[in-house]
Amino acid sequence: MLTDRKILLVVTGGIAAYKAIDLASRLKKLGAKVRTILTKSALEFVGEINFRAITGEPTYTDQFDLAEPIAHITLADWADIMVIAPATANIIGKMANGIGDDLATSTILAFHKPILVIPAMNVNMYNNKAVQDNIERLQIRGINLMIPEKGMLACGYEGRGKYPPNEEIIPAILTYLQYEQTISSKYLITFGASQEDLDPMRFITNHSSGKMGIALARAAYLRGGDVDVIHSRISETLPYYLEQISKTLSAEEMFSQVKEDFTKANVIIMCAAVADYTPKIKEEQKIKKKEELSLELKRTQDILHYLGENKREGQILVGFAAESENLVENAEAKLKKKNLDLIIANNISVSQSERSLAYLITRDKVEEFQGTKFDLAHKIIDIIEAIKKDVNKY
Ligand code: CTP
Fold it and tell me: Which of these three, 176, 210, 244, is where a domain ends?
């Protein structure tokens, strides 16, 4: 995944500095080469030895180290991406003002490749107008920043300022090694497995984990999209930065939420494993045991079909097709029948939980894809954005 990618980790002096040790370890395990710069304040919280032992690469602290007299240039030339984690209000302020008064800030000035900043600080510091202005200035310059998580902070305050989970920083690094934050569309993404109740205790569902939809939401958000999600049952935690979230369990609930929200979106991706059938009667009381039991089911609304009939001009509609045979033919037929712009046909007999084998089918092209769900998510977004460009041309 990150094999031989060169990452320059800059650790600054915040209480979350210890979390950067785990980040370095995860990146190394993914095959990356990680070199670390620690600021003077970072050394108050963590030691060089932690990073050197974990990464097996040198660490740097001193701009005037005679053994490495121009480390700020050689390190800037060496790395593919720079990750500043955690980033204090102080370094953000220096970056915004082009100050280079130590090794970390001088290297930042010499660095002309993607930068990812992970702010982490007290909520009042984060919300301070000066800090927010500085963040905005960095964003305008094309520097990627992750929003801090909300929660209980080390200082005892509650609010936004928390260092995000490293599990969320890694997809961001993977994204910014390849892409800029250039998406301007509003995405509506559905995912998860429907839950159709039989009685107060039992329900019918399916094996969908929601992982593909979460990967899509992650990729679209990280690339700058405004992302709303509607999801049913999922077996993975949602990224902390998604805010417009509706939970709907049954196919009927999802349909009514989609009807309410879809007009606001430019791109709609139906990744949910929506039940095709629901019990004819939902029993109010628990169904008692008997020798035999037959369930009567009725069809649910095909949400994708409804969207295909009701989408406005220029709105991009994407569907999925889970097939076990005649993959491409069946999916092409669904693309036309449901008036879609793109359909992703998954071979359910081959796809595993982390990797996918899929065909991406548009009106004029069929592309085969093999790789992780996150890579597939980016590929889907590439195609959507290309279709959007094409649509906007006319
Ligand atoms: N879908 C939907 N509403 C439903 C069922 C499915 O919107 N009630 C959407 C899914 O989100 C997916 C697509 O339809 O994007 C394809 O679902 P799939 O089950 O593969 O195909 P169907 O069209 O239902 O056809 P079949 O089950 O006969 O293969």
Answer: 176
